[in-house]
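Example record

One chain of 554 residues, shown exactly as stored in the release files.
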Amino acid sequence: MKLMECVPNFSEGRDQSILDAIAAAIKSVKNVALLDVDPGADTNRTVFTMAGEPEAVVEAAFQAIKKAAELIDMSKHHGEHPRMGATDVCPFIPISDMTMEECVEYARKLGKRVGDELDIPVYLYENAATKPEWKNLANVRSGEYEALPQKANDPAWKPDFGPHAFNAKSGATAISAREFLIAYNINLNTRDKKKAHDIALTIRESGRAARGKDGKMLKDDNGNKIMEPGLFSHCKAVGWYIDGYNRAQISINLTNYKVTPPHKVLDKVRELALEMGIQVTGSELVGLIPKAALLESGKYYLMKMNESTGIPEKMIMETAIQSMGLAELAPFDLDKKVIEYAIQKSERLSAMTVEEFCDLLSTDAPAPGGGSVAALCASMSGGLSAMVANLTIDKKGYEKVQDHALEYAPLGQSIKERAMHCIDLDTDAFYAMMDAMRLPKKTDEEIAYRDEQIEKCTQGAIIAPLQTLRIALESIELADKVCAIGNVNALSDAGVAALTGLAAAKAAYFNIRINIAGITDESFRKNTLAEAEDLLAKCNTISAKVEKDVSARL
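Predicted structure tokens for this chain:
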């Protein structure tokens, strides 16, 4: 599922009514969760954090910027933090199934709309920057709000979007795309701040000042300090003492965890601390973290232990929590600390017990229906294949297929998780189509809009089972593979994995066929049916092969 975060900063930190109004504007948009509001009275600035489906996040960001433009008057603003607009900055951050390039496109989309509809000058910075010198936010914001009248008369400062004019009330807004920043602290068994800072100098990208044999600081011909670069890129760090914890910490900001993940930094700090005669006692995550980052850490430690990574994702993350000591200072609640879990709906079908799901399924409620059941079957198929692979790992007599088993177990878990998401995706698509059917149709404009939304939502109701059908094929292909190498005591389970995968495929195909009649886009209808029939044919062929193989070996 595509998820994107947005962290807009507004030039208001004192008037709670304004902050509440901006929060209400964000909350009015579906499929977006407002995760945090962090106001600062001295800076007169508030940082909002929201996340959700990309299109919805862009809409929520626009509504928040619009509300800020209505309520904040920059000509009267004073605060300690650098600023140039009512909405000062608005960065987009990829969380899951998103590329930086996609976030850049969303930044441009928002920037154009803000410029066109709100008449606010918009400058793109960081990864979205259109000029090398605008990549750095400090350059874009140079001179702050007070410099905007002069910039409005300078051709070099023509904004990316919006009028090249001074907007006295709203100022200007900087919009960007950037990587997720992980605020991460490592705890030491010492109260000595100097020891913590010495390690921080070693690991951080900027490093430390180089010194000669005499201990004096080295300088270049221009009198500038010569720096010895640190061990990790995208890493900022400082050592400090925390009175409340009665210990020293290394406070770290990781600006690109995909390049420098927290577990790699932690393991190196453990080495450096031992050399100094001190110990790392644990670590602390400040704020939230993307699921992918914690999963990577958990898999890293599982692989170090030569254990399977093909286990449920929460078990993988629990391994990370234990290995990194993330619960040393306070409980670490995955549902509150992992972004994807923090924003997920509590009433989702996939969170129900089997009994609850089947009870609801048996009522006259129009959803869940066959599409959700299809996704559930695909999920169970992936789970069964993961089980067969895990039952093969480290088992005597299967030494030659260990690499395959270690590869197949996480594939099964991935199928299980993605199909689980489709359970709710299918039902959400159904209700969206029902909402479109209820739209007013009194005027020509209303009729045209209703028809457009019905077509869009009907396509969504087809795309959902089509996604399930694609996953079902993956599940059957995996069942075929685990059947060939898996523990013979679980041979029947591999066969059941193929059969439930086939049930998922056929059920998803039925749901595609029943909705395709409502499609007016002939190209969509033709291409979708062709793909669905091709996928189903492959599912039938491979499943029949597995069934024949299992039957012969039982």
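Notes: The longest strand covers residues 87-96.
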